[in-house]
Amino acid sequence: MLYWCEGDKYSTKSRCKVGVTCADARLLELFVDWLVHYYNINKNAVKLRLHIWNGTNENEAKEYWSNMLGIPLQNFTKSWIKPKSGKHRRYPYGICRASIDSKKIFLQILSEIRDEFEVTSSNP
To answer: pTM for the complete prediction?
Structure first.
């Protein structure tokens, strides 16, 4: 259900990502554990990308998410820095996206959702 509601469902022929973007570290921890447990993903294969606001300490934010998720700092990709807005205070460490590159798992998850919930769509 988490992936169905919050997960990335867009793909191209050459690239498929399985990812969730969220400000709640516990939810992302659950997502990462799900990938490790049910899809036999090595935790070190998980990449993280921050969505932070201008003025946020990027290094502190990376340390926070790394510690919360148990993902090494070298697994961060380039952060996306958003211009200032009123919501910055709600998310002092930004919003984090955890993802893996795997067309096989991407298609498997979509198939499992479709099979479990009898969802019909134009996606694979």
So the answer is: 0.81
